[in-house]
Design a protein that fits this description.
Structural class: mainly beta
Distance between the termini: 31 Å
Number of helices: 1
CATH class: Mainly Beta
Shape: flat
Largest sheet: 6 strands, antiparallel
Low-confidence stretches: none
Mean pLDDT: 85
Radius of gyration: 16 Å
Order of helices and strands: HEEEEEE
Helix content: under 10%
Number of strands: 6
Amino acid sequence: MAEVRPAHRTLDTLAHALDESSWLELAYDVGGNLVRATFWTSPLMTKKIRESLFSYLGGNLNTVTKTQFNADGVAIETLTKTLSYGVGGELVNVDTVRT
């Protein structure tokens, strides 16, 4: 297995910063659907690390938007996934856009 270089661990992007210490807060709508998952630097919830927002259409998950925040708590990268379903309700496509 390849060694992970320390510089790689310090990259503050959605693709790199997945194993840091964090505190997870979950939020649900009145129907019980998960609508937000926010990773904070501590239980005090003063600085965000990453946040995922979930929206639903006709009972199906419609979009997932993930935002990565830098060490100052500023949003630096967003990944939006839009899900498409077939006539029978099966997932047929996921369109992904990074900004």
